[in-house]
Amino acid sequence: MTHAELVKSSPRPQAWVRFLYFLRKSLNIFEMEMRKLRHEPTDLLTRAAQPFIWLVIFGQVLSGIRAIPTGESSYIEFMAPGVLGQSVLFVSIFYGLALIWERDLGIIHKFLASPVPREALVVGKGLSAGIRGFSQAIIVILLASFLGVRLNLNPFNILGVISIVFLGALTFSTFSLLIALWVKTRERFMGVGQFVTMPLFFASNAIYPIEMMPDWLQAIAKVNPLSYMVDALRTLMLPGSASVFGLGTDFAVLILVSAVLVWVAGRRYPSFVV
């Protein structure tokens, strides 16, 4: 008996059965998204330009003038985790655009006609965004190493970096899907997406410490998920770097925010085709 038949055969299937069915369908969506990426691998290479510009040009210039206090770390070391966080944000935040294309092609209608849990549709896309974010992590780490950045290559720290990248990608790609579910058109999505991306980036600790910000901006930065993502990346990537919020808090915030966004997006999914 398949998972779908097992779920349907009982009015109240056990929790582990529902979870396995949810996981299987999420991985099916993830596999479908990976097929798209396999047909367009150049997308990963073109996105390498952005971290290159930020680290090699912007980072080198500001490292030379020492305009931003970063403690014992050089500015390029301080900036490297922020550039990775920014890359994951930029890769994920326009994920909703593909959702609008899928609706126009009728693919979303087929998904909604199936018994697939709506949240699984969201999580599957978020996992594929994590793979794209992981490719950005490799690029940033190689670039940072080439520029002389001291990195913590402990296997547990590397695993932590990968986990944070996937959590961040899931968070921001789901946020992007919510924008698409709200605006429903490509033109409006591009406008809203660009409108929210820059505030998310600049109202975070990606390129300067939160302590440098005015009080009102510090308050915004402390409720910005990107700040917690970058804080965790900085703690895990740089030797001797202390977490501002606490590493456990960073993980907890990203898990909580992503869970809430997945739940809301799953509830809103059927309204996308109305």
The geometry reads as globular
Overall tally of domains? 1
Characterize the biggest β-sheet: none
- Assembly category: single chain
Measured on Cα atoms, how large is the radius of gyration? 20 Å
Q: Proportion of β residues?
A: under 5%
The averaged pLDDT comes out at 84
Helix and strand content put the structural class at mainly alpha
Overall description:
The chain is mainly α. It has 13 helices and no strands. The chain has one domain (48-63, 73-273). It has helices at 3-9, 15-39, 42-46, 49-65, 75-93, 96-105, 107-112, 118-146, 155-183, 186-202, 215-221, 225-237, 247-268. The chain is globular.
Break the fold down into its secondary structure elements and pairings.
Layout: H1 3-9, H2 15-39, H3 42-46, H4 49-65, H5 75-93, H6 96-105, H7 107-112, H8 118-146, H9 155-183, H10 186-202, H11 215-221, H12 225-237, H13 247-268
Helix pairs in contact: 1-2, 2-8, 4-5, 4-8, 5-8, 5-9, 5-12, 6-9, 8-9, 8-13, 9-10, 9-12, 9-13, 12-13
Task: Output the keywords.
single chain, 274 residues, globular
Short description:
By secondary structure, the protein is mostly helical.
